[in-house]
Amino acid sequence: MRTKLAIKFDGLLERYFPERRVFLKSDTDTRFIRLRPASQMLAFLGCSAVVAWAIIATAVLIMDSIGSGNFREQAKRDQRTYETRLNDLSGERDLRAGEAIAAQERFNSALSEISKMQSELLASETRRREMETGIEVIQATLRKVMNERDDARDETTQLAQSIQDNVGQPGQSQTKGGLNKDTLDFLTAALEDTATQRDLVTSNAQDALLAADEMAQQIALMKDQNDQIFRQLEEAMTISVEPLDKMFSAAGMNTNSLLSTVRKGYSGQGGPLTPLSFSTRGDDPSVDTLRANRILGQMDKLNLYRIAAQKAPFAIPVKNAFRYTSGFGMRWGRMHNGTDFAAPHGTPIHATADGVVTHAGWQSGYGRLVKIQHEFGIETRYAHQSKLFVKVGQRVSRGQKIGAMGNTGRSTGTHLHYEVRVGGKPVNPMIYIKAANDVF
Predict the structure, then answer these.
(1) What secondary structure, in 3-state letters, does the chain show?
(2) 299 phi, psi to nearest 5 deg
(3) What angle do CA 210, 216, 219 make, to 5 degrees?
(4) In this structure, are residues 259 and 241 in contact, taking their beta carbons and an 8 Å threshold?
(5) What is the mean pLDDT of the segment spanning 27-39?
(6) Is the pLDDT of residue 311 over 70?
């Protein structure tokens, strides 16, 4: 059976690959090489395999080249799109920075206007009290003058009655004519003096009433002015304090605890946080006094917020042009505890709040690192710097230059790694930066 199959297979091969001989002739001899059908078939299959491999390899290379070209073009398009987006973001950031500066100027202008209005309010309150005291003095003088006028009228009536009695006794007038004449002259002069004093008292009383009416009108006008000043102050306090409330709340900070902490740190008498209030001198407080005390309380709260804002990191550590390269969160399977800002090598880095430098030097992974301890248990970190301009124990203020951007430590390029830690735990720095952008 196997022999028949072999014979048939050889016959098939003979049909397509007949036996061939290759003769090799030399000067003295002639030889040949027999090419059997099986050998020819193997040679054909080998050549076919080589040709097929060459075709496939060439096709793969061509397709890879085409795909690489498309990928490069796509990468270039993505890069151009990314650069355009970065430029748009940079322009938007500059616009927001301009708006923040304008908002800060408006805020400072509002504070100055509030200070002016407070001075006017205090001066107005002082004038009102002086006018009230003057009215009381005028009323007392008027009552005294009216009493003297009534006494003068009584004396005039008594003198007139005495003159009539003396005139009605003719015998006595004849016996004591000289004495009666002197008495009459004295009484006449006294009556004239009394009439003159009465006219003077009446004139003074009328003048006092007119002055009292004028003072009453001035007091009413001052009350209207005070009410307008109060409304402006209340509106200014609302505009100034509410955004600060939202800013600290957005940063996850308890405003009551925050204000209490700031007040404890500035508890000295006579300092900027000494509570102000209008004295009532033991009387029940008036409506204006209550409004003034509420406004002063709001101003005290605004002052506390101003101090707290300086001591919390509500600022951006890079003031020059930059771009965000990595945010807070998981990255490459690990937690990225800060925000990265990319800018040219040597770009200045600034402290984001008042504080004390607790570390200034090399730390594994961070490279050249600066740590600043702030109030309220907040710490900020500035890593991968090329130069440091502060030292441990140094007190820095917001906006102070503390270093220059670099590429030290575990870093893939020039950038600043910025961290905010509260109670030792890292939090997203953009919470503070965005909260400040919404206000300033």
Answers:
(1) CHHHHHHHHHHHHHHHCCCEEEEEECCCCEEEEEECHHHHHHHHHHHHHHHHHHHHHHHHHHHHHHHHHHHHHHHHHHHHHHHHHHHHHHHHHHHHHHHHHHHHHHHHHHHHHHHHHHHHHHHHHHHHHHHHHHHHHHHHHHHHHHHHHHHHHHHHHHHHHHHHHHHCCHHHHHHCHHHHHHHHHHHHHHHHHHHHHHHHHHHHHHHHHHHHHHHHHHHHHHHHHHHHHHHHHHHHHHHHHHHHHHHHHHCCCCHHHHHHHHHHHCCCCCCCCCCCCCCCCCCCCCHHHHHHHHHHHHHHHHHHHHHHHHHCCCCCCCCCCCEEEECCEEECCEEECCEEEECCCCCEEECCCCEEEEEEEEECCCEEEEEEECHHHEEEEEEEEEEECCCCCCEECCCCEEEEEECCCCCCCCEEEEEEEECCEEECHHHHHHHHHHHC
(2) -65, -40
(3) 145
(4) no
(5) 78
(6) yes
Structure tokens at 11: 């016959």
Cβ burial of 414 (10 Å; 0-12, 13-18, 19+) is middle
Q: Is pLDDT above 70 for 243? A: no
Residue appearing with tokens 């309010």: 121
pLDDT confidence of 350, banded at 50, 70, 90?
very high
Measured CA to CA in angstroms, residue 209 lies from 116, 134, 143, 296 at distances of 35, 13, 11, 37
From the list 398, 399, 400, 417, the residue with the least C-alpha distance to 409 is: 417
Number of Cβ within a 10 Å radius of residue 84: 10
**The one-letter amino acid at 294:** R
Residue 56 C-beta-side C-alpha neighbours within 13 Å: 6
Phi, psi of 274 (to 5 degrees): -65, 125
Average pLDDT over residues 223-236: 71
Q: For position 385, what pLDDT does the model report?
A: 95
Model confidence at 82, pLDDT cuts 50, 70, 90, reads confident
Task: Please state the rounded mean pLDDT for residues 226-231.
Answer: 72
For tokens 């009459």, the residue is 184
Residue with tokens 């594994």: 364
Q: How far apart are CA 64 and CA 76, in angstroms?
A: 18
Number of Cβ within 10 Å of residue 367's Cβ equals 18
Q: How far apart are CA 341 and CA 327, in angstroms?
A: 9
Of the two residues 252 and 220, the one the predictor is more confident about is: 220
